[in-house]
Amino acid sequence: MSQSRLPQPVIVVPNWNGAAHLRDCLDSLRSQSIATHIIVVDNGSTDESLDIISTYKDIGVITHNKNLGFAGGVNSGFRRAIELGAEYVATFNNDAVADTQWLAELIQELKSHPSVGITTCKLLTADGKELDSTGDYYTSWGLPYP
Question: What does pTM read for this prediction?
């Protein structure tokens, strides 16, 4: 028996005390040009994050009692996406805002290059005027740098 796939991609947003930016982040993800399933993974926030997330009835939430860090947070979101049968999963920082075409363009790149398993986008500063990053590289010591 084959597993049915979720018809839309999943976006996993790790969050820890991100209330100050969370609404802008989630609103931008809900405004994507393609349908998405959003999961916020809350890493034991002590601010108003959970109250804010609860106002978004269409957004899934996974809560942890303590801060598991970025990897610990997104891994539980990835597990949920796998359970849902998602074909595509994206991570998105809770203090970022996405262009409406962000996810559609990433998925199009993956579809255009079937041998590629991961892609990233360019990151601009908050004012949108300067390039912040085009992703990270890792040194032979395992340290990331832009």
Answer: 0.86
